[in-house]
Amino acid sequence: MLNIIAGTAGHVDHGKTCLIKALTGIDTDRLLEEKKRGITIENGYAHLPDTADLSIGFIDVPGHEKYVGNMLTGIGGIDLALLVIALDEGVKPQTREHFEILRLLGIPEGIIVYTKADLVPEGPSSVLTDEVTELIKGSFLEGAERVEVSAFTGIGICELKSLIYKKARELGNRRKSPELFRLPVDRVFSREGFGTVVTGTLLEGRISKGEEIVLFPSGKKTKVRGIQVHGQDVLFAEAGSRTALNLGGIARDEVSKGEVAAFAGQILPGRMVDVVLTMFSAFPVILKNNETVNVCFGAGHRNARVVLLGAERLERGDRAYAQLRFGEEVPLKTGDRIIIRSCDSNNSVAGGMVVQARAAKKRHSSAEDAMKLRLLEDGNLSVRALAVIREVERSYPEISEIAVRLNLTISETKETLFGLLQEKKIARVKDSFVSREFADEVFRFIISILSDDQGERVFGPKPEKGELVSLISSKYHLDSEMAKAFLEKTREEGIVVMQGSRVALPGEKPEHELSKTGKALLEIYRTKGIEPPSNKEISEAFAGDKSLRKTLGLLLKEELLIKVDQEHYMWKESYNEALSYVKETLAKEGQITVAMYRDHMKTSRKFSKLMLEHLDRKHLTRLSGDAHIPVKRINDFN
Length: 638
Description:
Elements: E1 2-10, H1 16-24, H2 32-37, E2 44-47, E3 54-60, H3 68-75, E4 80-86, H4 93-104, E5 109-115, H5 126-136, E6 146-148, H6 157-171, E7 182-184, E8 187-191, E9 195-201, E10 206-208, E11 212-216, E12 220-229, E13 232-234, E14 236-238, E15 242-248, E16 260-262, E17 270-279, E18 286-288, E19 292-297, E20 300-308, E21 313-315, E22 319-330, E23 337-342, E24 348-356, H7 367-378, H8 381-392, H9 399-406, H10 410-422, E25 426-429, E26 432-435, H11 436-450, H12 452-458, H13 465-476, H14 480-492, E27 497-499, E28 502-504, H15 516-528, H16 535-541, H17 548-557, E29 561-565, E30 568-571, H18 572-589, E31 592-593, H19 594-601, H20 605-617, E32 621-624, E33 627-630
Parallel strand pairs: 1-3, 1-4, 4-5, 5-6
Antiparallel strand pairs: 2-3, 7-16, 8-9, 9-15, 10-14, 11-12, 11-16, 12-13, 12-15, 17-22, 17-24, 18-21, 19-20, 19-23, 20-22, 23-24, 25-26, 27-28, 29-30, 31-33, 32-33
Helix pairs in contact: 7-8, 8-10, 9-10, 13-14, 15-17, 19-20
């Protein structure tokens, strides 16, 4: 089913609430004060009857200038705007402000509704028509249908309702991939017998009963005990629907209006947010660098200091990149729309789009920072993905973080990253992604350490892996696992060669020159293969050789020999051959027995048990009956 949210906008007392009631039969003014004063204060909600393919909800917003903040709480989630203008009053201040808000929030489609047609039977005057035409020129409403209605007599209501259904079907679906679920909380209340309930417009994704969600930015976890859409119990809700969630295990006072419900890891709250701002053009406005402003987003708002990139001030119609610096973390995502309001005048002055949430600190005078944001805003998906990776690569992002930063699904992100890997614009190091330039920088550092002039001075001619890992960690602020991963990447790409704990450049021998005893020992172990001699046999063969113990220690350290148990070491190549067979058998059969190993490797039961019990001690496998089964993933065996 296609889910669409329509919303009213316009000046106070221009008939928005009466219009919604005429369309749906629902009075959205629910507060006693609203009914007493005859104006909308809080957002109201209604809906048309569902058809087989379409569900349309309505948000009725306040028109009074004092309640523009409340209006912004609901208007950001709409797909179809009804710009309401009373025929007896025409375009008024809040008509202009609401129109600018709609325009800068990127609302895709709209209808101009002339209300109170019963009071002005002759329709809009030429002056009003011209004024409206000038107001909407160049916007999403230019060319929009204009309908005259009267909520009192019913004039034009059927025509408008048909047009709303038509426009709704033309809009298409929002993204419904379940993992993208996101619902800004615009109401919180308790219901006897149910507990805490939150409502909001489901921006994207899908939520099902029983799923665990997180409230951002607080990080509190809760489970969805029940779901309602248009007052009806449902098992799931999809993007574009007004949704109520009954939350379990969380008290009413633990949830705040303005928080965002989403799945764990789907939002990266931050205090600094990069945006592109566009100033209102319908009336004079000014925004100064370092000014404190009120930022409205989703169903919430927070004060922030605005740092303009490359500008001291913005005026009517200007456009620029900026960074918003909040006093607390905010739950925004790339592509989210915001409205900026002046803290001094309490007027709306600009609209914007989030280019990068949870951003690094930007400099006011930096042209380079502005260029980075231009790539993040205007580039195609590959360009934006590369820009994101370059921005955060020193924190070594994994695919899940990149997906959230791009506001993509995991599968969409994988496809994009695969293309960049094919083009050699990025590199994968362990589970993280960095730009190819940064990876090459690390590789050049490793090469410089291994080159003759550096290697002799720092380590001696043959540096050990651990020493290299330590230097890489220190220079690039990496943990040891990531430093090891970078070093392993150089080996994979043929930049270095390794043997045991030693690393060298191609063409050099990484291992120490072996002594006569070392060479003789290796030859014995190589010849014996998967049936290694015992330590007692080796001691007897090299009786009187005082270097035996030290040489064996060196061969183990260099991983030329592998310790299988307290009494047996195995030549590395033979060990790898045996391990390879075990891995293949486990992958194919799910288990391996002593008999299977014995028959395939053509060895005795004694040496078959020796190898399989060794793997049990390493916690790679465990004995289950007569068979050994894997404990870890096969690819993690080493």
